[in-house]
Batch of 2 targets.
Target 1
Amino acid sequence: MDILDYLKEERNKDWRKNLRSQIKTKDRTKTKKVKMPEENPDIRNTNNIEVNSGLTKEQALLEASRCIDCANPTCITGCPVGINIPKFIKNIESGDFLAAAATLKETNSLPAVCGRVCPQEIQCEEQCFYTTKLKLPPVAIGYLERFAADFEQNSGEISVPQVAEKNNIKIAVIGGGPAGLATATDLIKFGYDVTVFEALHEIGGVLKYGIPEFRLPNTIVDVEINNLKQMGVKFITNFIVGKTASFDDLRKEGFKAFFVASGAGLPNFMNIPGENFINIFSSNEYLTRVNLMNAANDNFDTPVFSGENVAIIGGGNTAMDSVRMAKRLGAKRAMIVYRRSREEMPARVEEVKHAIEEGIEFLNLHNPIEYFADEKRRVKSMKLQKMELGEPDDSGRRRPVPIEGAIEEIDVDTVVVAVGVSPNPLIPRSLSDLEVSKWGTIIVNDDMQSSIEDIFAGGDIVRGGATVILAMGDGRKAAIGINKYIKQKIKK
Amino acid sequence: MDNKIVEKIQFSENVVKLIINSPYIARSRKAGHFVIVRVDEEGERIPLTIAGSHPENGTIMLVIQRVGVSSAKLCDLNVGDTILDIVGPLGEATKIHKVGTILACGGGVGVAPMLPIVEAFKEAGNRVISIIAARTKDLIILEDEIRKHSDEVVIMTDDGSYGNKGLVTKGIEDIVAKEKINEAIVIGPAIMMKFAALTTKKHNIPTQASLNTIMVDGTGMCGACRVSVGGQTKFVCVDGPEFDAHLVDFDEMIERLGAYKDQEIIAHEKHEHKCKSKHQ
Ligand SMILES: Cc1cc2nc3c(=O)[nH]c(=O)nc-3n(C[C@H](O)[C@H](O)[C@H](O)COP(=O)(O)OP(=O)(O)OC[C@H]3O[C@@H](n4cnc5c(N)ncnc54)[C@H](O)[C@@H]3O)c2cc1C
Ligand SMILES: Cc1cc2nc3c(=O)[nH]c(=O)nc-3n(C[C@H](O)[C@H](O)[C@H](O)COP(=O)(O)OP(=O)(O)OC[C@H]3O[C@@H](n4cnc5c(N)ncnc54)[C@H](O)[C@@H]3O)c2cc1C
Ligand code: SF4
Ligand code: SF4
Ligand code: FES
């Protein structure tokens, strides 16, 4: 069935018609957008508690009633996995929260995660009728998604999706991040025998080692992983495909196809003088120590250094997570140093707002050009070049250009470099005939198939650093591609 | 079962050899590779060289020197215990080729990672001269194993309690004085590698050093292990661990190894305290 026909058919069901007739559209649009309950900024910046505490039932019902159940739900076009947004929101409005969660899971296996971390303001919510036509704040699609998913997680009635009859065909998923988890979900539903191989000792990829507890608690991710285990997905940690065993080894063990979702785990540095001084970290190292290795907890062996004057270089989500972490680890000054203006920062809008509330300083239009150290080679200050905005560049953002002679030096005892990541080279290096781009990303066709017939790929290893939901979208596409490939193979 | 310790030998008070079940790694590993180990839930991830393996039995050999909390936890494990996480083999394997005469210099526990390299160079048809150096007699490890795969072995102790008296650099000078060395490899404490490299440079001997920087993931993800080699930043876990010893900035590496010194001392004292109270 065509997707538009499906949406129409669902929308014409009696319960939806009924709901629409209960409140006049005009009244719906008069309702004010909910405000997410948040922890007090002065207290939360000293602990790891989740900042957004989640909508109450009453708030969710009211917010759901704002959605006017559009005949042409443009919001869906903004969602990379095409969630049937009005259907799940109307389920909330009618009080059937489990049905709302089931709707989310039709196309998204990690709704509790996406509801928290998607950049909604440039995806679903940007395409909402409220934003595009009414020029009003959009329906809080992300908050509602989180509400329904959390409700299901807390209800103890998590639906284990139906799984097709086992076909005993073994598929290997490489990497336990969002892309890998999304593929595993769909492949197990199709009946395959799915094994996820993960290099680290925990499943979840960036969701575990990168995004901090105060934004995405690990327990939320674990519930989803357990769900996959119940569906029959096997997980093997501490296993690096290409090192622990080669693709050929796994082929010999009977794996018929591979999905490479190894992420963009290689941190970029700026290659400026002094960058290897002590207490200058990549954001990956800084966040991994705290998130994956529990370094801030005294009972754990892994140490982390966090000083009083901490500068984070960059303006994305990673930079924002690192700077807010620095504050929580006790920094007196936790600063963002970013070469463009605040409007151009790629981080989620909500994270920037939270960071400001928590007392983070922003040095926008500043770019580090050199670090200085004390006699023990520990960083003690940095030289910053002031910038101004010039002509727009390829990305449409105005290019930052140095203001000649405008240089200042500030004291820092910790620096976290968060200027992007490159694709993890482990897999490309282990396969000489795999086609990769000049950036090291794996090249794939529309089915997410690489230049090697039985190897598919998706997520950050194909896109470079992108988003959770795009990685998941790739994973779902790859599952379809793999299914098609296997069916063709069997026919031959 | 995987990660189970099947054999333990105490080389000296602070150096232990463990044979561990790890079938995949036993099969895939080559000379120069290492693993990352996490002993228990609270443990940190530490890198250890694979000193040998037995693919048929599915076991690997690790030789561990007790220096801080994590290595102490490992040294205290016994036969039958399992290690929570072992991942590998990591790093680039040593480039083994036939060049003529190889000089292999191992200092302290660095002799363990040197063993598989010596073995491989010998097998490739080279003449292999090994120097085993340590502070004192008790710290000389794996002497028999190294002898088995070397044409000549020189023992150096700082205090002269065994073999020749003097540092590894003296050992190198003595050998270079009597025969032509085509290539050298040095493995041991950073400071030893620094001076060994200076010595071989003086004699224009191409030299590899196996670096032991601080690591977290061991897969190229964090950058904790970075070093400057020839003015360029490299990640030891994926670009190494072996590099041209004459290009490595050892001073930077030595300082970076001390990055967590304060925390390590506190952690160590706490660990000792915990162990003592457990035994009482
Ligand atoms: C700090 C931080 C904050 C972010 N915040 C957001 C946000 O708010 N919203 C958003 O949408 N996106 C955010 N992102 C980006 C998002 O997390 C990534 O785009 C997404 O996780 C990519 O998913 P992936 O599955 O492709 O890779 P990853 O999540 O990177 O997972 C890859 C996994 O593969 C494993 N692996 C690698 N090589 C191998 C191998 N050879 N064998 C076995 N396993 C292997 C890795 O260990 C890793 O676990 C953030 C990223 C970071 C770092
Ligand atoms: C590729 C590689 C291979 C290695 N192989 C071996 C091996 O086969 N056997 C072995 O005993 N050790 C080996 N090491 C060193 C080993 O990883 C460290 O001794 C260990 O991490 C120390 O942890 P700890 O908690 O016991 O000590 P800590 O309390 O963390 O440190 C104590 C002292 O050790 C130093 N140190 C800390 N981390 C390291 C490190 N990664 N390397 C060297 N010194 C360090 C510190 O400067 C400090 O002075 C290797 C290191 C690397 C990078
Ligand atoms: S998955 Fe992301 S983009 Fe899609 S509806 Fe949910 S929040 Fe919006
Ligand atoms: S565009 Fe907005 S109002 Fe319309 S269906 Fe989607 S969420 Fe509801
Ligand atoms: S140990 Fe993390 S990059 Fe090398």
Target 2
Amino acid sequence: MVVYALCGVAALVALAPVGMALRASPRGTGVVYGASLIVTLMLLVMSLDILLTGAGASATTLPFGLPWIGAHFRIDTLAAFFLVVINLGGAAASLFALGYGRHEDAPQRVLPFYPVYLAGMNMVVLAADAFTFLVAWEFMSLTSWALVIAHHRTAENLRAGYVYLLMAGFGTLTLLLAFGLLAGAEGHYTFDAIRAAPPSAGVAALVLILAIAGAGSKAGLVPLHVWLPLAHPAAPSHVSALMSAVMTKVAVYGFIRIVFDLLGTPAWWWSLVVLGIGGATCVMGVLYALMQRDLKRVLAYSTIENIGIVFAALGLALAFKAEQLPLPAALAMTAALFHVFNHSLFKSLLFFGAGAVLSATGTRDMDRLGGLIHRMPQTAFAFLAGCVAISALPPLNGFVSEWLAFQAILLSPQLPFWSLKLMVPAVGALLALSAALAAACFVRAFGITFLGRPRSDAATLAHETDTHSLAAMYVLTALCLIAGVLPGFFIDALAPVVQALTGGRMPVQTGVAWLSIVPVAESRSSYNGLLVFAFIALSGAIAALAIHRLASDRVRRAPTWDCGYPDASTGTQYSASSFAQPIRRVFGTLVFGARETGSMPPPGSTAPARLTVVVRDLIWDWLYAPVAAGIAFASDRVNTMQFLTIRSYLSLVFGALVLLLLVLAIWP
Amino acid sequence: MMREFAFQGAQMLLVLLLAPLLTGFVRKVKARLLRRQGPPLLQPYRDLARLLRKDVVLSDDASWLFRVIPYFVFAATWVAVSLVPTFRSGLMFSWTADLIAIIAVLGSARFFQALAGLDAGTSFGGIGSSREVMIASLAEPAMLMIVFAIALIAGATQLSTMSAFMNSDEVGLRVSLGFCLIALIMVAIAENGRIPVDNPATHLELTMVHEAMVLEYSGRHLALIELAAMLKLLLYVSLIACLFAPWGISPSGAGATQLAAGVASYIAKLAVLGAALAAFETVIAKMRVFRVPEFIGAALMLALLATLLRFVSGSL
């Protein structure tokens, strides 16, 4: 199996020169994205086959990489699940790009990198030794960096690329150190060898911290998230979708692989760290998202929120696993993995919608959009489905995974430690808060962008997007609905992965009456998305039918009422900024140091009144700005070394030599 | 099977018929407390019937979503309230959604209603929507924390099981349950837009939330939205009744006398809680809108405290 997967990866890599050759040809877009679509679909079918039939792990070694090790590749159930996520997202993005890519004004900067980027993500998951893993990881980072700066003429994008490159370098460095510690003095670089010789408690703790920093910086955990909302929106939209929906999941894979698989038995306090970071990340992410005006940036920040949810669930799973409670651990792990899958669906969908809006109007600023539901009805429908799903509302899929996470939290009084007893309910409250704020965030994102009246000429002149893009969005919408109403099948499909990671599994769901899901026992909790969906549809239809038959079905069109003061100016509508104002006032002063200052002109003056709002990113101010200032200061000092005389250089060389010899002499 | 199905149907019809009566009753009691005559008890039914017969006047800027949303909001609220045990526990479909899911179904209804406020592109609709989601962003976590605390005590989020547990001898007096009750009442007030959070009786005041959001609705659409609001009030009252006053709810295999007692006790509970709501609204003043977060934040903190207490000790 793994050989076929590697052939697929090789095919994707081989597409890069094709993309290069066809960069100027009008057929280039179709060829590259069409071929990517076919290859990712084949990889998808293959990995689904492994996941569903429960085929055993398959491994191979290729003769490159470090000479005395070679490159190891392996597919087990965990890798198969993440391959499904990657290639489903990849296939959807390729389908979308078949239409969207035609609007690309610089295809030569996208076409060669896109298939290699897909190959890189697949390779990270396939890798089975530290060296291959790190090479694939860095490969994935660099190709995505190239895609981020595809539109390099915008200064903003260049800055995004710079920050991204720095943070990606930091992440790889920490992972390098983590694997260095795992490999030990003997240099066991293969995962099998690492697994066979788990590190001591102190080393394991260090590896955990490094893994959180390394995988977390790629996934967007607070406070390592700063690059994400800059880089994800800067890329072309199908790449944004891949980065947000898929690459963050590859980072989650890295974390799970290291912490749940390679590190051996966890200590209970690890979960405390992961839970705390996850809880903080989900609330901070969604609050940031609420403050943005740029549609794609809203989506990028909301990715941070969802990663927070995943990590909170992983933290719970870690706590239960450390306490030898396999059943709750399996529940929490299922919640995490199911949310990984769900988020990859609806985040791709939303980025596709944002891409369609961007290519139809040329802007991502919500305050210049509006009324698009009339001009792009199908995009609006799909985007709405994505908004409902990501806001964790039934009957779509986002709700199911959050519901499972809540059920796992409700099992946590079994945990013996006081700090966990206090931490878990607090994280539960943060999850609940972030779910409610996410709903607010996506009412705003959809309402301001698609509803109301157009706020600019560009929005007035928008038109529906092409069929390929719509097809990609509809496929994802359908999957969101299916995963929402028939979650039992998905939970069962995840069972082998969960079994391998936690040693337990949730009860089999497919046999439950009416296709409900029952995490522990029916008297305790159950949910049936199918019936909720059917009941709401049925009651709504009955109400509509009864009212139209028995009462009235007449409609008159008239100007908007608005209390008798309808204003022709579209500027009087609520904008993205004004919609967020109440929430900014409630949370903003604490989290963002937000300040509002209003100035009124004196009576008689015709000058406009002004309201100035300052929202700061306190993490940037307190964490990154000092570090950046420190580095700038140090490099300024070091800079003088470039302009010394030859005598000073010679004495420096001499001093260094003496120092090194001294060290050698003293070294025991 | 058929019998169970009939009971589920009876519950759905009962809540639909009782909801306007409860609203009418609260209005009547409020009027009497202010020494006014007040509208007759059946006035809400007449209002609904009148609205249903009228034409819909639709804004030129409204989209298809605007016309679908009233049906969705009504259907979602109706489904949610049908799953709360009222006069009889062990409803046929009670396992369809546990309490967390019921809250989330109400969340879906609110999500779409807030979107409807933005659809016509007016400033009134926008102000209503943005305030509604601000209130919801605190009320929903508070509600979930209440559910957590009670679920940890009852060992289930299934509403039938929770209600049965609260009716058993195992409950006893607990501090955390007291906190939960207070928090639940505060959340119920906020969710239903009652005084002091919002005033259901006013139109066109800048403090209003719900009424501003539905300003562009008319005719049958407005009737559905109002009916959904009445159902939501009934839902929260029934929820408080079935969790904190579960006496008299007839078990699933009960005979006719027990059922009659169940219906009678349910109506009595509605009357008592409705009268209490009217009395509370009469003696308290409406808050500024930016005081509301403090109000609901207090509920959130109480509920979180209840959950923490429960995590810390099994007997609190």
